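Protein kinase domain-containing protein
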Amino acid sequence: MYTDRRASREAERVRRYFDDGYTSYYKYWGIIETGKWGVALLCRQKKRENPNREERWFVVKRVFDELMQDKLHKEIKILKRLRGAPHIVQVLAIDPDPFEALSRGALIMEHVENGTVGDIIYRMKEQVYPFPNRVLLRFFVCPMAWPDRGKESRFLIGDPKPPGGEHDLVPILKLIDFGEALYDPNPYVTDMGVKINIFHIGRLMRMLISLDTSWELPPGEVTMSVQGGGERAISTASACIAKPNYPNLDDGLRNLVMLCTAVKVEDRPSLDWLWDTLMNLIFTRTPAYYAQRNLPWAQLEEDGPIQDLIHYIVYHYGPTNHEGIEAGETEGIE
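Structure:
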């Protein structure tokens, strides 16, 4: 498998650095991901008694040269600001910090080990059935946790049951890669940043429904229910999931995804309406609801089959070396 020479060079630097002065503290394990401007490296903190430290995995993110250092500084600043948010990868402090004295520092963050959304899409292609609706609805909640985010990024698959009970059936999704984040200059005047992110949320859901990771698809006109009531024709970038396609798909979920990816910004839903509608779907779409409507794969909406599916496609596999989500995620660490 091809490895970027710049990534290999940074990896070797970190390995030598640990071996030369920190061999009793840390061990370099390997390259996780390489992007346009940096590399993510998997490392291990060793167990020590004085001071007392437990073993743990962590990720070191390094940029390739000084010209890209501003991106790393911005990402560190944003992650510190969002520290504690359950849907955001967490920045870590290590002591001693081997990178403090270097001209180019590093971002130290938690290792989320279950792969990416792209991985589970790749694995679902091997199945003869689609994602259950109750799984899709709960995945929909995760990107809703970052409505003011300005640019698309990657999602990692986190813990199966993090504290709080929100993810009773599916693991949490954690957002990474903030080096390319953009800020809305007038967040209290316009909701343009929110509307852009609503589109990206819808695009992610379209990928999970269709198992097609193409970043851009040709739009089409679909007549659908809209916020405020009534129906009208809307041009949407998710026309591919309109009826009669995907007969197992919940019509309410189908409608939300197509609205989120409306071509015209003014046709996209508000964040509050989207959240309320999504919560209503989550609470009312029970296994019995789907059984009564005779959907093709209604039996998969039960808790047991969902738990079996998640265990298989998330925890049964290691990381998948697939091509990933096309084109749109070429910025930063991919």
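The chain has two domains: 5-110, 117-315.
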